[in-house]
Amino acid sequence: MVSVEQxxxxxxxxxxxxxxDVVVVAHQAERVAPxxxxxxxxxxxxxxxxxxxxxxxxxDLARAARADVEDPPRGELGARSARxxxxxxxxxxxxTAVEEQSRFGHTRGAPFRHGGDCPRHVxxxxxxxxxxxxYSSDVIxxxxxxxxxxxxxxxxxxxxxxxxxxxxxxxxxxxxxxxTLLRLCTGLAVPTRGELSWDVDRRRIGxxxxxxxxxxxxxxxxxxxxxxxxxxxxxxxxxxGMLLERFGLWDERHTRASSYSRGTLQRLALCRALxxxxxxxxxxxxxxxxxxxxxALLERELEERRTHSAFVVATxxxxxxxxxxxxxxxxx
Length: 332
Hints:
This protein is an alpha/beta fold and 332 residues long.
């Protein structure tokens, strides 16, 4: 049975990578319509009904996966590109502000283009970025980011530019706001102050969190097939087979994730994050629980993708990725 915690975790992931229609699984099966907030004040009730239906739809997909999923073929799959330009700004209390904001703080706008050379050194207060290369376009632009949880300030004055082939290394002690910054970069959180702009399709963002965000009741093949359907990957079976083979999970593809070790779960989570060929990869402690072979596999993936993907990587072991980094953001 799909647990409530896993459903919430899956929902957070989909929020960073899919269209705004949250009940995309139900749309595919053409069973459930999205919740509609009417003028009769029943919006909350509609949303609750839709949530129940999405849970049932997930269970149907799980049953179908166990009954029908065959071994995926082994093969390579080319990446497809798409564009999405968005800006997240902290909620404003200025009554003269005319910019329209959604309930998540998202606003549409022209993509940011850096007007000059990327600075070698930027002093950011609590955070600072040391750039080592010059680029002409950016995937993410952050200006004056601040994040508070009640009276507690986690981030203050964070600024950086992430080029399309850039690699931002984020370091800092526990509690310095690394995970919070990564959630801001994926759109899972909104800054209290400042501006955060993207020039990337939300469906092309890959996110690896502390938790694997996989269904323990499903096998590796079933998990990736489910996410492949949610991301609407046309040739997902070929892509799944290639990733399982690359990360050494082919022989374990029909084993339930509940029996995996923490390191094997991390490999499966990496497959999930890379499944849809993201243009922006946001990785939180990607080497966590990996053995030497797993570390080598991940380093190979980073090396191969560094020329056509942008990275934001938070780690307590910066030396592992120092050679990939084009900028370093140190949080204190």
